Amino acid sequence: MPDNRGLEVLSATRAHEACAGVPTLVVTSSLYDQNVAQSYQLGASAVLSKPLPRASLRMELVRIGSHLKAWITAAG
Predict the structure, then answer these.
(1) Using CA of residue 22, residue 71, residue 69, residue 54, what is the dihedral sign?
(2) Are strands 25-28 and 46-49 parallel, antiparallel or unpaired?
(3) How confident is the model at residue 22 (pLDDT cuts 50, 70, 90)?
(4) Using 50, 70 and 90 to split pLDDT, how confident is the model at 5?
(5) How far apart are CA 12 and CA 49, in angstroms?
C-alpha cells in the first residue's frame, strides 16, 4: 500500500476492539528501519521485507498461525 496506508490499516485494526488481538504480518518494501519499528509499535506480530525469502514467509505464517488459532479459541 502506498504512502504508509498499510500502517494506517494496522493502526485502525489495533484500535478496533474485536480485531485488536488478531496476529498481523506486515510485508514491506521499505528500506527504512523506522517503518519497521513503527509497524511493531503499532502491534504487528511480524514484519518481513521484500523480496521475501519463501523460508522466512513460511516460518512466520506457521508461527502466526498458531497465535491465530489461540486467538480464535479464546474468542469462542
Answers:
(1) positive
(2) parallel
(3) confident
(4) confident
(5) 22
The structural domains of the chain, with segments of one domain joined by +, span: 2-75
Whole-Å CA distances, 25 to 4, 41, 67, 76: 15, 13, 12, 23
pLDDT in tens, 41-71: 999 999 988 888 888 888 888 888 887 888 7
Q: What is the pTM of this model?
A: 0.73
Assign 3-class secondary structure to 7-74.
HHHHHHHHHCCCCCCCCCEEEECCCCHHHHHHHHHCCCCEEEECCCCHHHHHHHHHHHHHHHHHHHHH
Non-local CB neighbours of 61 within 8 Å, separated by 6+ positions: 25
Give me the CATH code for the 2-75 domain, please: 3.40.50.2300
Residue 71: all three cell numbers together:
486467538
